[in-house]
C-alpha cells in the first residue's frame, strides 16, 4: 500500500505542506481567521462585492419567491427563469450572442475544453495556464502542445506545422503572475491559422476594460476575435459560479456536449439573481476601479522602494517573488504576526523556484489598510536576506 503519511511528511520537509484556515464571519478586508483578527491581502474579492449589502438584499428577497436549491440539472428541470435571466445579462454585458451559467470556473474550463476538442485534435495551451485549463486539456484526450508563456511567435510556429482542428486556450489575466495575455496578437494568429481561441478571463472580469467588461473588452476584441470567453463570478463579482459566452451555435453545442454542464445540479436560482445585482454594481463601478488602481500603483511604488521584487503586473494580483519555499513561508508567517494575512504560493501552483507571496488588493481596502501592509512589509524585510529560515 502506498505510504501516504510518508508523502505528507516529505511535503512538510520541502516546505510544500498546505493547511486550511477557518474563517468566521463575512469575507471582507478584516477577517477572523482561526479566531485571530487579520487584515487580509489574499482574497480574490477584487471589488469588495462579496459582502455588499445590495447583493445580500437581492439574495434575501429572492429566497422566499424561488427557494434555495437548484434541485436538478439544467437539462432535467433545473434551468430556472433566474438562470436564464443571468445568462441574458452576461451575454449583453460581455457583448456576446449567448451565455451559459456554470457551477464553478473549474467546471467551465474543463467542460468547454473537453467538449470543443477531442481525439485527433490539437490544443495549444500557455505554459502558465490555470490548473483547470490544464485538466480540461487532459480530459479532452486531444494532443496538447504548450507554448512559452505569452510567446505569440512560438505559438504561430507550432500552429503553422499542425493540421486539423486547433484550439488555443489562455488565461486573460494570469492568476499567479498578474500579467495580461497578448490577446490582440493571439486573436490575429488564431485567425491566420484557423484556430479557435478560448480566453479564461477569471481575473480580468469586473476589473479591466470599459465598465469592468474584462481584458478582452479592454482591447476592443469582438466575438469574432475571441469566440469563447469564460469568466468566474466568485472573484470580482463577489458571488459564485462561472459563465461561458460566445456564438449561439457554440453555446448550443456546449449544452449538448459539456459534461460538467450536463451532469451536475444547477446552481441555486436565487444566487443567479444576486449575481444580476452584482453585475449592476460592476457596470457602474468605475469609482471602485479607480480607487483600486490607486492602491495598485501606490503598492508597487512603495514595495519597490522597500527592496521587494515584483512582477510586471498592473492588475490587483501583485506577487512578491521570494523563490525559496521555506523563505516564502517564513515571510508569510512574520507578516501574520504583524496582523497581516498574505499567503505563500509554492509549487506546483507556480514553477519550481518560483515561490512567492501573492498580494491581492481590493477596492474594499482603504489607503489606511495599505499603510498597515506596507509597515508590516517594512518591518519584515530583513527576512529577504536570511538563509537560515526553516519551515
Describe the structure.
The protein has 391 residues and is of the alpha/beta class. It has helices spanning 4-13, 53-66, 74-78, 81-94, 105-116, 131-140, 152-160, 183-193, 215-218, 248-257, 259-262, 269-283, 286-305, 325-337, 367-380; strands at 23-24, 30-33, 36-40, 98-102, 122-126, 143-147, 166-171, 195-200, 228-232, 242-246, 317-323, 340-341, 344-345, 355-360. The chain folds into 2 domains: 22-47 and 286-385, Aspartate Aminotransferase, domain 1; 53-283, Type I PLP-dependent aspartate aminotransferase-like (Major domain) (Aspartate Aminotransferase, domain 2), CATH 3.40.640.10. It is built from 15 helices and 14 strands. A 7-stranded mixed β-sheet has the order 4-10-9-8-7-5-6, with helices on both faces. The chain has a 4-stranded mixed β-sheet with strand order 1-2-3-12. Strands 11-14-13 form a 3-stranded antiparallel β-sheet. Helix 8 (183-193) links the parallel strand 7 and strand 8 (195-200). Helix 4 (81-94) runs parallel beside helix 12 and helix 7 packs parallel to helix 8. The radius of gyration is 21 Å and the shape is globular.
What's the short version?
The protein has helices at residues 4-13, 53-66, 74-78, 81-94, 105-116, 131-140, 152-160, 183-193, 215-218, 248-257, 259-262, 269-283, 286-305, 325-337, 367-380; strands at residues 23-24, 30-33, 36-40, 98-102, 122-126, 143-147, 166-171, 195-200, 228-232, 242-246, 317-323, 340-341, 344-345, 355-360. It folds into 2 domains: 22-47 and 286-385, Aspartate Aminotransferase, domain 1, CATH 3.90.1150; 53-283, Type I PLP-dependent aspartate aminotransferase-like (Major domain) (Aspartate Aminotransferase, domain 2). The model has no long low-confidence stretch (mean pLDDT 96).
Amino acid at each position: 500500500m502506498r505510504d501516504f503519511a510518508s508523502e505528507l511528511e516529505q511535503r512538510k520537509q520541502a516546505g510544500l505542506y498546505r493547511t486550511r484556515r477557518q474563517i468566521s464571519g463575512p469575507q471582507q478586508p478584516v477577517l477572523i481567521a482561526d479566531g485571530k483578527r487579520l487584515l487580509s491581502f489574499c482574497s480574490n474579492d477584487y471589488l469588495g462585492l462579496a459582502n455588499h449589502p445590495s447583493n445580500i438584499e437581492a439574495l434575501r428577497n429572492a429566497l422566499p419567491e424561488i427557494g434555495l436549491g437548484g434541485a436538478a440539472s439544467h437539462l432535467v428541470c433545473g434551468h430556472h427563469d433566474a438562470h436564464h435571466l443571468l445568462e441574458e445579462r452576461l451575454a449583453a454585458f460581455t457583448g456576446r450572442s449567448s451565455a451559459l451559467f456554470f457551477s464553478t470556473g473549474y467546471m467551465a474550463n474543463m467542460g468547454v475544453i473537453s467538449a470543443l476538442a477531442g481525439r485527433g485534435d490539437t490544443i495549444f495551451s500557455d505554459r502558465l495556464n490555470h490548473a483547470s485549463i490544464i485538466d480540461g486539456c487532459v480530459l479532452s484526450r486531444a494532443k496538447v502542445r504548450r507554448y512559452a508563456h505569452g510567446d505569440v511567435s512560438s505559438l504561430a510556429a507550432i500552429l503553422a506545422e499542425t493540421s486539423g482542428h486547433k484550439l488555443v486556450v489562455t488565461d486573460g489575466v494570469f492568476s499567479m503572475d498578474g500579467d495580461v495575455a497578448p490577446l490582440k496578437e493571439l486573436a490575429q494568429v488564431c485567425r491566420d491559422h484557423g484556430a479557435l481561441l478560448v480566453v479564461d478571463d477569471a481575473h480580468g472580469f469586473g476589473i479591466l476594460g470599459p465598465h469592468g467588461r474584462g481584458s478582452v473588452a479592454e482591447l476592443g476584441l469582438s466575438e469574432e476575435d475571441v469566440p469563447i470567453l469564460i469568466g468566474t463570478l466568485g472573484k470580482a463579482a463577489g458571488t459564485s459560479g462561472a459563465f461561458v459566452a460566445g456564438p449561439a451555435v457554440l453555446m448550443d453545442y456546449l449544452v449538448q456536449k459539456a459534461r460538467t454542464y450536463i451532469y451536475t445540479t444547477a446552481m441555486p436560482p436565487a444566487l443567479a439573481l444576486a449575481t444580476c445585482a452584482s453585475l449592476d454594481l460592476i457596470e457602474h463601478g468605475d469609482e471602485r476601479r479607480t480607487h483600486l488602481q490607486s492602491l495598485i500603483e501606490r503598492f508597487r511604488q512603495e514595495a519597490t522602494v522597500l527592496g521587494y521584487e515584483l512582477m510586471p503586473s498592473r492588475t490587483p494580483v501583485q506577487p512578491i517573488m521570494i523563490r525559496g519555499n521555506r523563505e516564502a513561508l517564513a515571510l508569510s508567517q512574520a507578516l501574520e504576526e504583524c496582523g497581516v494575512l498574505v499567503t505563500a504560493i509554492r509549487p506546483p501552483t507556480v514553477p519550481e523556484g518560483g515561490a512567492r507571496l501573492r498580494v491581492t488588493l481590493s477596492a474594499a481596502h482603504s489607503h489606511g489598510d495599505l499603510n498597515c501592509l506596507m509597515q508590516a512589509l517594512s518591518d519584515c524585510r530583513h527576512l529577504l536576506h536570511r538563509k537560515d529560515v526553516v519551515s
